[in-house]
Design brief:
binds zinc ion; 11 helices; seven-stranded mixed beta sheet; about 350 residues; alpha/beta; Metallo-beta-lactamase, Chain A; five-stranded mixed beta sheet
Length: about 350
């Protein structure tokens, strides 16, 4: 089963400026982006190429936001950081923005090494623990039915089935059994800065952003990314959910934050132009909904909609994510009363109302 990573479509980034002008920290090094805030950039497999982690100067060490994936390369990069520029530093708090393995893949390892507590929202923590506790190796029948419902053919199902199930537990280091809950509106004092927790949803259930309003900085995780559109997917866990509706609501919520923040995203370079980026993300999804509604003049399956939603061809490795994203859009049209779903022989057919 493909993990839930972001990306699919490169998107507009007009109105954004990149204050570091393409200067990025090398593997195993850090780059200061503001007083007491260091950027660590780790390679990850796949089209995103890198994930960003942030070290925040704390009273007796550094708090760490996100860790990168559980790969030998990422561990080696962290060892280089802690043997090099951060040789006198311990991690005081391990903060995970959301449950995806490119963000908390090494959180358990970090907590062990530094005797650090893990801080996450309850929605992200429980999702990570739930997925890690799933020990089935073969694909459950509900998932096979879900794939059939989405319109996958026998070859596509066979390809996905061959990859097995419940891979999450193997791609992250085990999380500690206890965590500290972060809640929307909480203030977290780290060194000289006060960070307000701002949660969002749609890419993951209860994603934490950290806002230092006085310092003008937003650690955005994957809730706002420059250049690429975070993946918003409907999946088998909650097939009646409306993740794109949650995504729109989160965009509106983030638009209440100051427009001139320096945004430190989970992928890509730090940027300013938060509102321009939020507007672009909102507009692109709404345009895709409009195009999809026209396309649904004839009944379509979710896989039939890929050409309307994505600019790239969808191969087997992207199929799961593309299906989830297509379903999120179709489900949104259904919630808005603009489309209906009919099930024929286990396959969902959508048409405009
Ligand atoms: Zn990510």
């Amino acid at each position: 089963m493909a993990t839930l990573l972001e990306t699919i479509a490169p998107t507009g980034h007009k109105g954004l400026t990149y204050p570091f002008g393409g200067t990025e920290p090398a593997q195993g090094d850090v780059l200061q982006v503001a007083p007491g805030i260091d950027w660590v950039r780790l390679k990850i497999p796949g089209p995103l190429k890198h994930v960003n982690c942030w070290l925040l100067a704390d009273t007796d060490g550094d708090a760490l936001i996100d860790t990168g994936m559980n790969t030998t390369e990422a561990r080696d990069a962290w060892k280089a950081v802690f043997n090099g520029p951060k040789s006198d530093t311990r991690i005081t708090k391990m903060i995970g923005t959301h449950f995806h393995p490119d963000h908390i893949g090494l959180a358990g390892w970090m907590c062990d090494h530094h005797a650090a507590p893990l801080l996450m929202t309850r929605g992200e923590w429980l999702t990570a623990r739930m997925l890690a506790a799933d020990a089935r190796d073969s694909v459950p029948t509900e998932v096979l039915a879900f794939w059939r419902g989405a319109g996958w053919d026998d070859d596509q199902i066979a390809h996905a089935t061959a990859k097995g199930w419940a891979g999450f537990r193997r791609i992250i280091t085990p999380l500690p059994l206890s965590y500290t809950r972060l809640q929307d509106g909480d203030t977290l004092t780290i060194g000289a800065r006060d960070w307000r927790i701002v949660t969002g949803s749609g890419h993951s259930p209860e994603h934490a952003c950290l806002l230092d309003e006085a310092g003008g900085i937003l650690i955005a995780g994957d809730q706002v990314l420059p250049r690429i559109s975070p993946n918003v997917s409907l999946g088998v866990t909650e097939p009646g959910a409306d993740p794109l509706g949650e995504w729109f609501a989160s965009i509106a919520k983030l638009k209440t934050l100051p427009a001139d923040l320096l945004v430190l995203p989970g992928h890509g370079d730090p940027f300013t132009g938060l509102h321009a980026r939020l507007d672009a993300m909102d507009r692109e999804h709404r345009e895709r909904l409009d195009e999809l509604e026209v396309f649904l003049a004839e009944p379509r399956r979710s896989i039939d909609c890929f050409g309307r939603l994505f600019r790239r061809a969808i191969g087997p490795d992207m199929l799961g994510m593309a299906t989830g994203e297509a379903l999120a859009h179709l489900r949104r049209l259904e919630v808005e009363g603009r489309a209906l779903r009919e099930t024929v022989d286990g396959v969902w057919w959508w048409r405009a109302t």
